[in-house]
Amino acid sequence: MALFFIDTEKKADAGHQIHREGCPHLPDKDQLYFVGSFATAKAAYEVSPLIYSPASCCPACATPA
Ligand SMILES: [Zn+2]
What we know:
Blueprint: E1 2-7, E2 16-20, E3 32-38, H1 41-47, E4 55-57
Parallel strand pairs: 2-4
Antiparallel strand pairs: 1-2, 1-3
The protein binds zinc ion.
Zinc ion binds at residues 19, 23, 25, 58, 60-62.
């Protein structure tokens, strides 16, 4: 299991990005919302739109495959 966070700031090209704990691209703490603990990034991705939408996975740490 890993902890996943979502960027509260919306990016024009990627929406709200989902990151795994420890990703070097994590935004500042005040721009992070804790999504939860999941086995895969795909699982985090499935619930993230309930929090912030549209959501996408950070290509560096949270590819949904
Ligand atoms: Zn990331």
